[in-house]
Amino acid sequence: MPRSMIAKKNIPNLLTMLRLVLAAVFFALLAYYRFDTDRYVLLLPAIALFIAAALTDALDGYYARKWQVESKFGRIMDPFCDKVLILGALVFLAGPAFAYPMPVFEDNIATGKSELVQHSGVLPWMVVVIFARELLVTGIRGELEGSGHKFGANLWGKLKMILQSVVIPFVLLVVYLIDSEFQFADMLLLPRDILVYATIVVTVLSGLPYMTGAYRVSKAEPVGK
Which of 20, 49, 117, 216 is deepest in the core (most CB within 10 A)? Predict the structure, then answer.
């Protein structure tokens, strides 16, 4: 095999593994961040790392198809690295580092108590919903593709990935602007919440074709199989 072809065969897989390395550094920055400290400066390099990692997701698939070097390794590791990056980011955004105490009022009088509010706008139940979707779809695909049925990426799935790749750096940018006391940061809270909830809705809808496909396949199979 010519050296140029060997290089082309390895480049998509190297890009996939690079995404995992970038994700690890990205998580390290988020792990060190704390609300209401000067550590908010870490969010800018974190945003840059996430965008770079998301770009490798587009590039590895593009080059694998262009050079016709798709491999079993890529088919396994590409979605795995995607899920590590996206789900890991959401876990951090819904975690205590991005929470702040909000004073509790009763009849406009402060009670001296406080409750934690997610500074990121990403709530734990949202992460549970996305995790559940990914587990369900992975289970369905593994079962049916093992039986010879193929499930390609659908429009909802592509829209899900695009939204997730946009909303995470946008949320981090909003947090950075609020922490740095940017004058108009509060104006971004509503667009942030709209994007976050839209991502949850699209993520759920993107799982429906897999469920309906699995139902059709199960109805078509002989009884007792």
Answer: 49
